[in-house]
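User: I'm putting together a small comparison set for a docking exercise, and I want a reference complex before I start. The sequence is below, and the ligand is FE2/S2 (inorganic) cluster. Could you produce the 3D structure with the ligand included, as structure tokens?
Assistant: Of course. I'll restate your input first, then give the structure tokens for the complex.
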Amino acid sequence: MADQQTSPAGPDLSKGVAPAEFTGTTLLGHVGDEEVLLARSGAGIFAIDAHCSHYHGPLAEGIVTGEGIRCPWHHACFDLRTGEAVRAPALAPIAVWKVEHRDDRIFVREKQAQPKPNVKGAVDAPGRIVIVGGGAAGFAAAEMLRRQDYRGSIVMLSQDAVAPVDRPNLSKDYLAGSAPEDWLPLRPDDFYAKANIDLRLNTEVTSIDTKTRRVVLAGGETVAYDRLLLATGAEPVRLPIPGADQPHVHVLRSLADSRAIIGLADGARRAIVIGASFIGLEAAASLRARDVEVHVVGLEQRPMERVLGPQMGDFVRSLHEEHGVIFHLGDTVTAIEGKRATLKSGGVLEADVVVVGVGVRPRLALAEKAGLAVDRGVTVNAYLETSVPGVYAAGDIARWPDPHTGENIRVEHWVVAERQGQTAARNMLGQREVFDAVPFFWSQHYDVPINYVGHAEKWDEIAVDGSIAGKDCLLRYKNRGRVIAVASIYRDTASLEAEWAMEKAAAS
Ligand SMILES: Cc1cc2nc3c(=O)[nH]c(=O)nc-3n(C[C@H](O)[C@H](O)[C@H](O)COP(=O)(O)OP(=O)(O)OC[C@H]3O[C@@H](n4cnc5c(N)ncnc54)[C@H](O)[C@@H]3O)c2cc1C
Ligand code: FES
């Protein structure tokens, strides 16, 4: 007999619901043991999986926009008709059920065979597409090319030792010990062969000849392309101080880095994290989850103030202090001698492991050498094409014309990189899609997720709604009265609505 506590919530949708029971936009119910969400869009009623295929976010708490539903956690969007994940970070479709209207009731019938994804436009099929990079943008592009029914050859060249992984997890649950390593790959290893994607790992591209349309690999081999996507990401800044090259001092970018830090943290008594921004503080939270004493050394007076402002900065600091983190702000490490790290202020801290999270630099060398236009990032147009026709760029390296700010911007966000990879893929097939997504990122500290939509390099006012200390707030960053970005804690619906409003404002 089914355990009552684990039986799914809401009405049994296979038995039908009366219109009076379904007056809102969504209704959570179940069919058998599966949670199913009824969603209304205009006159249409759809039945879909109640959970997001990214991290299982509750779609009942999302919002319906057009014929899509957006996930409250990291803003993925699914097509209500087909279940297709039309906006990253979700990449896999969700199930859709057949809906029947009979005797003035709405019945959810059998699960449908997964409908084919939408092919957005004509597929002008270049013979071979080469992707340099096996990260967020590179993977999302390769996956989207196949979704768009591209039948030509895809070669993906990655300097990484492993197939694309969920990089954000490397500083969060995986580092904290609450996510096993088999959660990390974006797809199982056999996906690439099945999808006919020639993924070549441990492969460095050293130059590009845009005249003969070839990339040159470290061993001298060349690979010809018809279209090229550069998605080389960013590399961590290394500290130019004595002792930074010791084995217990680590940056955090790759799976190998995260594994090494876990190895060092195992049995460690104390860690120093250099850098009080996103990666550093996420690493600090994860190391605290492993019961390691953590000292954070950062040049800034308030953590994350540059991006999130003083109020959120103070909150983040006290949140970490409540969890036992000790801050040394306005300070830096000038030398590391064995386990002893010397601070500029004169003190000495001893640590078994040192994590360096002092920012990243976009990997522009290939683009610069190839003569592409570069301006603090690879310059791309609204279609993510570089100054050389047929060569595209996406992710952490790309500086694109953002229609929301009217400025050329470059950001280092997972979701933006994936969405740019997807748009670049469609454009490499000739679909001429403007990249107009509102930038989004999230960051996780203990049980507190911070979501951010928009882009604000400077602002003249921050309007706080709710309580930051109470972990229930929405901050609006305004410039001359216009909201240019919104940060929130546990205000997911409002965050989605802000994103939707920014999209509509740019479109009008
Ligand atoms: C630990 C960590 C946590 C993060 N957490 C978040 C988060 O919570 N939210 C968020 O929004 N963002 C987060 N980010 C940022 C996010 O991961 C990046 O913005 C995103 O990965 C950028 O994607 P990309 O494809 O541009 O680059 P990457 O994912 O870095 O991929 C670059 C790829 O290019 C390859 N490459 C580079 N040069 C060459 C070459 N010459 N030849 C061959 N291959 C090459 C690399 O090996 C790699 O495979 C995090 C980053 C890190 C490191
Ligand atoms: S859980 Fe839905 S987007 Fe991440």
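Residues 132-138, 157-160, 167-168, 170-171, 203-205, 231-234, 252-253, 279, 363, 366, 395-396, 412-415, 417, 441-443 surround flavin-adenine dinucleotide (ligand 1) (CB under 6 Å). DSSP finds ten helices and 35 strands in the chain.
User: Thanks, that's exactly what I needed.
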